[in-house]
Amino acid sequence: MVGVGVVGVGGIGKLHAKNLKALPEVTALSCYDVSPVVAAQAKEELGLTVFGSLTEMVQSSEVDAVFVCTPPFAHREVIEAAAAAGKHVFCEKPIAADLRDARGIQAAVRASGVKFAMGFVLRYWPVYAYIRRLIDERQLGALHHVWLTDIGGPFRVDAAPWRRLRRNNAGIAEQAIHEIDALRFLAGDVASVYARGGRYGAMEADYEDNLVYSLALANGGIATIIASLSSRQSDRGGGVIAQKGALVFNTRTQTVTGNLEAIGSIDQRFPWNDPFLDEARGFIVWLEGGAPPKATLEDGVKATEVAEAACVSLRQSAEARLPLVE
């Protein structure tokens, strides 16, 4: 049985707290938030125990693991405190706002020996899980081209002014990190990034609100990610062109269509699951001796490295090769 503390319960942290409350393996559920008002609301709505400080939470014998749901710029402080106290960590995406903090987190977690899982929830969405299974079963063969889209908006910072600055949230990669990880989940490591983008609608931010990532994959294939924070029409989907066929998928409808050499025509529609509940359950079950999580510490760091490589490419108007050297 596991006692869990949630740090940051103003947004995604509240959703995680609701899901954790539904898990029978979670025996005690608590929270800490820098805003006493937000913490009080979580206590009233969910019956959470409220700690007065981060130190108090990580030193509590009732807390075995910490869910880190603060803005990205605050992740490192929380994770290092939790790891130093021997608490296991689940971290919402991205692992940090920049690669230096991501690597600092990696070093701290490795030195502590605690378990760590990343909140890359797309790995739990049915369409990605299905395509990953086809890849594992060698139904696709070598991947030649993968493309992914993450389009939405318009961008607003009313409820979260910290999102105005790239140094606080990793810029457009706060959202596009999902597609970066989904690409790595399906196609493996990235060898280089060439990025083009600009700020067209979200003028209150200091970073690009539209960005195209052109990526060379370590396996020899290519990939494209199209990200936007300024679109009045949303879209999240993509496709795969491979040695043994091709697939196109849509995450809104959870559909996959295509044609594969060994299977023939594919037209799959999947029932929608609760991926946030599934990833929370997976983390808790892992702490209890079950299978490891789908997204690891290294996945978090490598996704942030790709995001930072895109920033390097934008600054230099050139291809940025991985790994990046500080």
Briefly summarize what is shown:
With 326 residues, the chain is of the alpha/beta class. It is 35% helix and 27% strand. The strands form 2 sheets. It has a 9-stranded mixed beta sheet. Strands 3-2-1-4-5-6 form a 6-stranded parallel beta sheet, with helices on both faces.
Key terms for this structure?
single chain, 326 residues, alpha/beta, Rossmann fold, Dihydrodipicolinate Reductase, domain 2, nine-stranded mixed sheet, six-stranded parallel sheet, 15 strands, 35% helix
Describe this structure in words.
With 326 residues, the protein is of the alpha/beta class. The chain folds into 2 domains: 118 residues, NAD(P)-binding Rossmann-like Domain (Rossmann fold), CATH 3.40.50; 179 residues, Dihydrodipicolinate Reductase, domain 2, CATH 3.30.360.10. 35% of the residues lie in helices and 27% in strands. It has a 9-stranded mixed sheet with strand order 14-13-12-11-7-10-9-8-15. A 6-stranded parallel sheet has the order 3-2-1-4-5-6, with helices on both faces. Strand 11 and strand 12 form a beta hairpin. Helix 4 packs parallel to helix 5 and helix 5 packs antiparallel against helix 10. The N and C termini lie far apart (41 Å). The mean pLDDT is 97.
Topology:
Elements: E1 2-7, H1 12-21, E2 26-32, H2 36-46, E3 49-50, H3 54-58, E4 65-68, H4 75-84, E5 88-92, H5 99-112, E6 116-119, H6 126-136, E7 143-151, H7 166-169, H8 173-187, E8 190-198, E9 210-217, E10 222-228, E11 235-242, E12 245-250, E13 255-260, E14 264-269, H9 275-287, H10 297-316, E15 320-321
Parallel strand pairs: 1-2, 1-4, 2-3, 4-5, 5-6, 7-10
Antiparallel strand pairs: 7-11, 8-9, 8-15, 9-10, 11-12, 12-13, 13-14
Helix pairs in contact: 1-9, 4-5, 5-10, 8-10
